[in-house]
Amino acid sequence: MAPPLPDESGSSSADAVGADLHYRRALDQGRFLIQRCGACDRSVFYPRMVCPHCGSDRLDWFAPSGAATVYSTTVVRGRPQDGGDRNVALLDLAEGVRMMSRVDGIAPADVKIGMAVQARVLMSEDGGTVVFVPARTQALVAASSASASAQAGNGAAA
Question: How do residues 11-36 score in pLDDT, each as one tens digit?
């Protein structure tokens, strides 16, 4: 049985399972979590047991906003039969940490430095993975969902 994930207070069993395993278990449940230091109030990623900024072991888990900016990107060329080209990007999260991932939803060559993106957890048979989509795509999806809900509500009233 997997140890519990953080409760609303941010406390967790990370000490019992290790920070990396705790992070991966959360991803496998569709949750993207990073850490914040209770001593210096700075965000931390990649998961650790001790704050790299101040040395404190008071690290709490929280769900970041997911808002990020592309810091760097490259196109990795691949044969079409192997899935074709893909991008690898370094992304600066709004919370002040940098992570490596990819930007989905657009051609790899269209990913640009400075582009606003939004995190999402992509689930596969191998578990959860954090990927990013252009922020405008995320906004369009949200607006489309809201519009469809409003139209469904108007249709039900008629």
Answer: 444 555 799 999 999 999 999 999 99
Provide the 3-class DSSP secondary structure of residue 23.
Answer: helix
Q: Which of 4, 11, 80, 18 is nearest to 46 (CA)?
A: 18
Which of these, 13, 63, 14, 57, lies nearest to 38 by C-alpha position? Answer: 57
As a whole number of angstroms, the distance between CA 47 and CA 23 comes to 7
- Say how far apart CA 70 and CA 7 lie, in whole Å: 31
- Residue from 123, 131, 100 nearest 29 by CA: 123
DSSP letter (8 states) at residue 144: H
**Burial code of 44-83, b = ≥16 C-beta within 10 A, e = fewer?**
bbebbeebeeeeeeebbbeebebbbbbeebeeeeeeeeee
**pTM higher than the cut 0.70:** yes
